[in-house]
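Quick review question:
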């Protein structure tokens, strides 16, 4: 709604979506940004709005990897700022940010981090008195000042339960491959284990630093890139396809973290750059050593690196 108001006033706002569970730009599990040049159509979503910036988080809640989520928020903001510095209209159009609905505990910490990262000057709080008061107290001395506005929710609005949110995520994934009106035709691709490298970030769910014993520190870097051995565990996973980059590992074994200065540099590129697209791993054949992927279009993948 706010984006459409801005577009109809002749501006080109940048919509930044930090909601990894119920995002509006592309598949769930991503932090995204897109500059709008025309109104956002409810039925066709953002199909005609150009190619968005997408950083792949890989989970539907920030609690899975808080450090990674914060890092990707910073990455998206840096790229949006860099673009705004080169395009006067994008700079003048400003940014409109959608955050997660989780506002308790770590969720509140992440909300404050997002507000500070994007250097917001106006924050809208919809129908949440306690959150409004907490943010008002937190940012009362902020410089430059932040204007907090309390907004009542529209009549008839109800909370979305877990079942509805899961169905919505499934619909978004299907829409990515088949289109909003089933007008697209995805393709199936079979690749050998030797022709593709699959990586994950971090070592699974991470406890927040505040939950660790006094003086203790994590043994695993939650933002490290790890090479994954293909197995049945990754069947039905959504994976991001990286843009073409130098190969990681330099022929290293298929286990453990990326090692070496060159690998660290490439890993940083993978984490910082826009992903090329997404695939679904539909089958892992351990006997033949092959992966079967559902891809949005025919032809070779942009790279052999999946995250």
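Suggested answer, residue by residue:
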């Amino acid at each position: 709604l706010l984006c459409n108001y801005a577009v109809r006033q002749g501006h080109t706002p940048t919509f930044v979506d930090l909601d990894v569970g119920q995002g509006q730009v592309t598949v769930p599990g991503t932090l995204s940004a897109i500059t709008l040049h025309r109104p956002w159509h409810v039925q066709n979503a953002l199909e005609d709005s150009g190619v968005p910036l997408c950083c792949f988080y890989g989970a539907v809640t920030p609690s899975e990897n808080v450090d990674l989520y914060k890092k990707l928020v910073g990455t998206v903001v840096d790229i949006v700022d860099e673009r705004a510095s080169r395009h006067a209209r994008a700079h003048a159009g400003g940014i409109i940010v959608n955050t997660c609905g989780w506002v308790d505990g770590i969720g509140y910490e992440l909300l404050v981090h997002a507000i500070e990262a994007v250097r917001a000057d106006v924050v809208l709080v919809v129908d949440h008195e306690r959150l409004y008061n907490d943010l008002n107290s937190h940012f009362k001395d902020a410089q430059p000042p932040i204007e907090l506005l309390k907004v009542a929710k529209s009549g008839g609005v109800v909370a979305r339960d877990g079942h509805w949110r899961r169905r919505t995520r499934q619909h978004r994934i299907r829409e990515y491959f088949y289109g909003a009106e089933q007008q697209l035709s995805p393709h199936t691709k079979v690749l050998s284990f030797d022709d593709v490298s699959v990586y994950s970030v971090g070592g699974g769910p991470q406890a927040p630093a505040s939950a660790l014993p006094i003086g203790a520190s994590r043994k695993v870097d939650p933002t490290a890139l790890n090479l994954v051995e293909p197995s049945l565990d990754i069947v039905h996973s959504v994976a991001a396809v990286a843009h073409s980059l130098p190969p990681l590992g330099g022929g290293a074994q298929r286990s453990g973290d990326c090692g070496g200065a060159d690998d660290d540099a490439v890993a940083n590129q993978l984490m910082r750059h826009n992903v090329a697209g997404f695939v679904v791993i539909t089958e892992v054949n351990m006997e033949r050593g092959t992966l079967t992927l559902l891809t949005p279009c025919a032809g070779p993948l942009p790279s052999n690196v999946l995250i």
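Why it works: The first strand starts at residue 14 and ends at 17. Helices lie at 2-8, 66-86, 88-93, 106-118, 129-138, 162-178, 261-272.
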